[in-house]
Amino acid sequence: ELFRTSRSATRTVDSTLTIGDTTIQYRFPEVGDVASSEKGDLKGARATSGRRINVVVTSPPGHSNQRFAIRNTWTKDQNVLFVLLGGSWEDIEEEFLEHGDMVWVKESASVDKGALTVILDQVGFDAMAKKYGSDYDYIFSTPDDGFVFVREAQVLLGDSPGDFWGVCEVD
């Protein structure tokens, strides 16, 4: 067991992801958790027009208010995973179990701080695939101080094929 939980009935999955020479340990909620049932099982859900978009949001452990706002606004009808680096498991455990939409990354001195954003995104994508399978068309990633106009993105992407990589900035 990579991590110790204080509740024996937790529905968590402990996993690892190796990127180069670095192995990242993380915990994510099991499939069929509380959050999925509260949202009416979004797996496969699609807006009336557009693509299925899952969202990975990087968020520091102390940003519970930001995560609350995001859950109740622009990701309300989306599959979302919040990726948190470090902090104490005990400090985020209650929120993790209540919402079932968080990935807790065990902090490691071997993590290259310069590549941290890419590493957290990779962990988020890995956990998203393990939690929701391949039931999406696109995954968007943003920090918790950003947002995605999900409905507009679904319409704009329409039935366009291909992969899109990059950064969107608004002046």
Write the layout of secondary structure elements.
Elements: E1 12-19, E2 22-29, H1 34-38, E3 53-58, H2 64-71, E4 79-85, H3 89-99, E5 102-105, H4 116-132, E6 138-143, H5 150-157
Parallel strand pairs: 3-4, 3-6, 4-5
Antiparallel strand pairs: 1-2, 2-5
Descriptive report:
Helices cover 29% and strands 23% of the residues. It is built from five helices and six strands, in the order E-E-H-E-H-E-H-E-H-E-H. The protein has a six-stranded mixed sheet, with helices on both faces. The N and C termini lie far apart (47 Å). Residues 1-10 and 33-49 have low confidence and may be disordered.
Structure, briefly:
The protein is of the alpha/beta class and 171 residues long.
